[in-house]
Amino acid sequence: MLSVIRTLWNVFLHTFQPRETIQYPEEKPNLPPRHKGRIILSRDPDGGERCVACHLCAVACPVDCIALQATEDENGRRYPEFFRINFSRCIFCGYCEEACPTYAIQLTPDFEMGEFNRQNMVYEKEHLLISGEGKYPGYNFWKVAGVKIGGKDKGEAENEAAPVDVHSLMP
Amino acid sequence: MAKIWVDDKWYEVGADQSLLEACLELGFDLPYFCWHPALGSVGACRQCAVKQYRDEKDTRGRLVMSCMTPASEGARISIKDADAASFRAGVVEGLMQNHPHDCPVCDEGGECHLQDMTVMTGHNYRQTTYPKRTFRNQNLGPLINHEMNRCIQCYRCVRYYREYAGGRDLDAFASRNQVFFGRHQEGTLQNEFAGNLVEICPTGVFTDKTLKKHYTRKWDLQMAPSVCVHCGLGCNTTAAERYGSLRRILNRYNGHVNGYFLCDRGRFGYEFVRGEQRIKQTLARQDGKLKPLPKAKAIEQLGRVLPGNQKVIGIGSPRASLEANFALRTLVGPERFFSGMSDQGSHLVSLMEEILRQGPARTPSLSEIEISDAVLVLGEDVTNVAPRIALALRQSVRQQPMEFTDKLKIPRWLDHAVREAIQDVKGPLFIAAPSATRLDDAATATYRAAPDDLARLGFAIAHALDPQAPDVPDLAAGARSLAEQIAAALKSAKRPLVISGPSSSSAAVIEAAANVARGLAKAGQAVGLAFTMPEANSLGANLMGGGDLSAAFKAVEEGRADTVIILENDLYLKAPAAAVDRFLDAARHVIAIDYLSTPTVAKSELALPAGAFAESDGTLVSSEGRAQRFFQAYIPKDDIQQSWRWLIEMMRAAGRSEAESWSTLDDVIAALAQGISALAKITEAAPSAKFRKLGEKIARAPNRYSGRTSMLANINVSEPKPPDDPDSALAFSMEGYQEHPPPSLTPFFWAPGWNSIQSLNKFQSEIKGPLRGGDPGVRLIEPPETANGSFFSSVPKPFAARPEEWLLVPLYHIFGSEELSRQAPAVAELAPKPYLAVNSEDAAHLQVQAGDQIEVNLAGTAHRLPVAIHPDLPKGIAGFPAGVVSLEGTGLLAWSKLSRL
Amino acid sequence: MTTTIFYILVIAGVLLVPLNLAAGLIWLERRLLALWQDRYGPNRVGPFGLLQVLADMIKIFFKEDWIPPFADKVVFVIAPAIVMVTVLMAFAVVPFTSTVVVANLNIGLLFFLGMSSLGVYSVVLGGWSSGSKYSLLGAMRASAQMLSYEVFMGLSLMGVVLMAGSFNLRDIVEAQHKVWFVIPQFLGFVLFMIAGIAETRRLPFDLAEAESELVAGFHAEYSGMKFGMFFVGEYMGVMLISVMISVLFFGGWLGPWLPPLAWIVIKTFFFIMFFILLRAGLPRPRFDQLMSWGWKIMLPLALANLLVTGALVLAFK
Q: Are B819 and B863 in contact (CB under 8 A)?
């Protein structure tokens, strides 16, 4: 019984405490860089698209709001032919970012995406792709992958030996 | 049956199995790489280790490879044992040391056996830091992509390619951790079954190159059970769609038909569905040209032509489904319906159907062909006509030698021990064909002759088996002794088999094959008689009835008909061009329903776009007489709809009463089963659209299907409801029953932890056996218990070469001879260039060399072709590539003058 | 004539003021809860967010008035009206001042008790007619809770009646000229307040709603204005209990300097705010705890209170 009264008293004392709420439109919140807001696609340090169209973000998405189609350039580098996020369905859970093996898809602290027309919430690749590396600088998937692409031959990736000479008779 | 203990619980397992098979059959998740149900065990990868105990008192046990250990009575093993588990994890860790960081860009990702097994064993982190070894890839042609870095050296590819499929040009090179699997030099893989490497390879070394161009992960595909339309065998396939287009064909296991493998035509021929040749809009002739017309207008136009018109005839098609053919037959009436086969084709198919129906022998399924122990192929190049038979025959030649290994008590699943014991010994396989075939290397003896001489050989074999059969008196001595050799081999076999078909365009060849089978049957042998069929539904179209093409031509010529409806059929491939031209010009209205813009469509007044196999539901009857249902993988775009739906709309336009009661596939099937007694059993081919499992339809897409709320968002952000499917128990969605649908309705194979095609073991009632719930399809033709009828007696005269004329014989090619698949870019790339083949002697006589132009004069039309020299062709015969050179319509087995240019 | 007009005004006032105040209370509650939770609460619509109530009302009026197909339609519609009617009826006997009272009944207190117990029908019928298991569970809890807490609610007031010697509420207030009954009847006050909270199904005794277990309990299936009526009914119930506490234990309109009406309003609002503080501060007990509390602690205490008061009244008479 005493604890009930003490609780009530302590709650009552909050009358004189400052408020935590930020009065948003007048006062801008200072969001941390890892806040889960608008999704972007980043580029690798060389300026190429990081996305390799592996479909992992799409499959991780609990509301299935990511659709893409893979394609390849003439040198075997895979990239998305189109990449579409329907932000009117997105719940900003960040699973896509968790799933992305190349740090391509990232959530940013921008959340001011309101639209009067829902159709405008559908973002295509040109809306998503930024020109920088985003939160994870320095990573280039193609430098660790084994496939050959333009500008990187077999055996030239990190931690790779030169291609085997199949015709060699050395044991 | 044997009783074994697994982790201290006992189970009954089938006798004569390895422990791995037994464990998988019992539903345990035991990882493996080098073992494959069709290839057997070699114990190379050490992945399937379990602990085996001597008896219940033994607590130490020892590690054994479960694939190499028989599941003998009283065997005690532990899968969970910590030593075994850490051993298995260690093996995967070793394999992964050189495996590249490729999964995101690897086409195997998401259906990769290596991924599954890595997860299953629990290996997570690569602890080594030394450089990964790399390889250079080879260009293996337009069908298969090669990425050697990913190889884990399980040897499955070379075992399949060399030992199972009989290929020569894929091998293992170099040594130790540098073993390389590829060709001795870059180039297209020569074997016709190379496409199966895509499914055989447990990781992404060999992947589907056609899929790569429009890549989609397995989990994103909307799939449906389908049936291959590229030959008469009716192999089961899975058709897979994404974003409204067909993405790939995958083998769909059917224990009685194709088992684990498809041919490359069946796997890669699908691209015609995506091709430029498709008709997508309703087309109508305006100002002499076919131009798009709104669908409603086209129906209106039909409404002007059809009602009350007593002069409508329908030409069906051996490549259209039974349902489409039946709808046309109902629309025009049975007496005005024509089967759409060429005169000769119709005659031969009827003959074959008659033989199959009357006896003497039962037509075997592909799995039965595989276990035949003496085979005669008469007049067929099976590799190029019905390719999957060739792969089955390569297994059949091992049957007799394996009786020897049985005596040595080597279990048949112990693959390399069996092969070591057999060496190069092959069971009897005799191939008699006009020219060399791709199976000759497996044959005991071959015989190359003109069709009439092939028939004579067949008659001689029959006579050697049974003196009551007509004799061939003036047979050459060599052929006579060969006939006696073949007769002896067949007679001493337990499960002899005769294969023939219409490829030699000769009724005598078929009759001779029937005589051989009758001779064996009379001696009480369990003989099989398999015929190939020219098209996917030839047998079904024949069971449907209807006259041949010249009867249709005659009807128009005599003025009994003036309106022609042509269903999925290019008449120019079935009859001489001049006759077809005459026919189409004489008819007042020509309405074509087809998916490809064929020359016939080009001459029509109204062309209605039909759904191709992946866009339609229907039933096909395979050459085995097995009726199999195929289902839509997706609803096609534009005006395209299923042929039988077009025909129902035509009925409605014509004011026919049937149109009222026909709205779904089941309605058509019910009417068809009632109307044609020979086809009454097709209702059993698959469950009806009312079928529900746990109250739900069966989902066409896997659980993890992605992008539902986004794939159409560019068109409209409010996503539409998934389309209804009134025609089948499948749903166009991932929502629905997922686990174990009935086999004929299984859109894809997937089980928890088993994302690759290896998940099949969760769907089979026994490894390599039938699917749980029975293999799909229903056999329509069974011979009577006691064969009636008698031997065919019209033995043809020996072939005599004419001095200045050559007999034109079609030579078949797996890539190029079939009408639909040759529209697929990858297949077209592999199709031969036009040629006219003669043997060296004839070439010398004609004074031509390979590559020279030669003129063929046929029915007044001159064709120019480059010469090819086939030394194996008999004298007096000229071969042309069927399908590639359009001499088909000229009436087969024609004589022609050849003149050098 | 003037008295008639006065009465009409009083009746209109008693009908309309609580109704509008209830709406205002929603705003007050949200602001106060926010204050005690270091937030702002509704502060955007109008000055201090006062028009939020109006916005909510507009919204609630324009919402689809959905009746689930599985509901018993007639009962489903009547149920929310019952709560409004009973509470408003109870207001009829409340003496706001010696003159501002609709019906000065001899048995005013009994009438109040009767009306407040009739209110439970609304909850039970609403929950039952919804045809949903959550609603039914909520309704069952509500009826059990009412039954248990009504018993000692009545008993806790008997001390007051003994001391005032009347069931007439005006007489009870008049009897507090010397000393407010909260002093001699402190135990009675505490008991009545607890029973009052339970009677209005306010936190911490809102087990009939219990959104964390029962979605929204008895009104899970309600929407639009029918839901609004439950909502307003609840706030009027809060007002009723608050004003009754003032009348029974804190001398009603009695007080120095200010006009009587001001006193009763101040006292009432104090208790309303106290109710909101309870909501901000206390968690919800388990249902079995609630029941054993009622029967094993509150009821014996109420009986003891009555016994002692009776004995003392007899002794000092």
A: no
* Chain A residue closest in CA terms to B708: A64
Return the closest-CA partner of residue B239 out of B632, B560, B787: B632
Q: Could you tell me if residue C46 is inside a domain?
A: no
- Among B576, B586, B613, smallest CA distance to B317 is for B613
Question: In total, how many domains does chain C have?
Answer: 1
Q: Is A63 within 8 Å of B709 when comparing Cβ atoms?
A: yes
d(CA B837, CA B872) in angstroms, rounded, equals: 10
The domain spans of chain A are 26-143
Rounded mean pLDDT, C261-282 = 87
Q: What would be the CATH architecture of the domain defined by A26-143?
A: 2-Layer Sandwich (3.30)
The residue of chain A nearest to residue B220, with distances taken between CA atoms, is A59
Q: Which CATH number covers residue B437? A: 3.40.228.10
Decide if B103 and A78 are in contact by the 8 Å CB cutoff: no
Provide ipTM, 2 decimals: 0.89
Q: Judge if pTM exceeds 0.90.
A: no
Query: Is the peptide bond preceding residue B360 cis, with omega within 30 degrees of 0?
Result: yes
Residue of chain B with shortest Cα separation from A64: B707
- From C178's Cα to the closest Cα of chain A, the distance in A is 29
Task: Show the tokens assigned to B129.
Answer: 């830091």
User: Domain range for residue C71?
Assistant: 66-316
- Domains held by chain B: number: 3
Chain A residues with CB under 8 Å of B101 CB are 144-146
Closest CB to B105 among A78, A88, A168:
A78
C36 touches chain A (CB under 8 A): yes
Render the burial of A109-130: b for 16+ CB within 10 Å, e for the rest.
eeeeeeeeeeeebbbebeebbe
On whether residue B465 sits in a domain, the answer given is: yes
Indicate whether B634 belongs to any domain: no
In a domain, C264, yes or no: yes
- Give the position of tokens 């008909």: B561
The 10 Å Cβ neighbour count of residue A171 is: 7
Give the helix/strand (H/E) hosting B607: strand B606-609
Task: Kindly give, in sequence order, each residue whose CB lies less than 8 Å from that of residue B252, ignoring residues fewer than 6 positions away.
Answer: B225, B226, B236, B237, B238, B258, B746, B749
Band of residue B1 on the pLDDT scale cut at 50, 70, 90 = confident
Chains that touch B (3 or more CB pairs under 8 A): A
The amino acid sitting at B209 is K
Q: Which chains touch C (3 or more CB pairs under 8 A)?
A: A
Name the maximum alpha-carbon separation found in chain A.
Answer: 90
**DSSP 3-state assignment of A8?**
helix
Residue C269 domain-assigned (yes or no): yes
- Residue-wise pLDDT for C21-72, tens only, equals 887 888 888 888 888 888 888 888 888 888 888 888 888 888 888 888 888 8
For residue B179, the chain A residue with the least C-alpha distance is A166
State phi, psi for B3 to the nearest 5 degrees.
Answer: -105, 120
Count of residues in chain B: 901
Name the residue among A86, A102, A148 with its Cβ closest to that of B717.
A86
User: The domain spanning residue B839 has which CATH number?
Assistant: 2.40.40.20
From A4, A7, A15, residue closest to C35, measured CB to CB: A15
CB pairs under 8 A between A and B: 140
In a domain, C42, yes or no: no
Tokens found for residue A48: 């190429």
Closest CA to C61 of C229, C221, C219, C237: C229
Question: Chain A interface residues facing chain C, Cβ-Cβ under 8 Å?
Answer: 4, 7-8, 10-12, 14-15, 17-21, 23
A interface test, pick of B130, B171, B709, B719 with most A CB neighbours within 10 Å: B709
State which residue of chain B sits closest to A102, comparing Cα positions: B104
Contact A17 C278 (CB under 8 A): no
Report pLDDT digits (tens) over B198-252.
Answer: 999 999 999 999 999 999 999 999 999 999 999 999 999 999 999 999 999 999 9
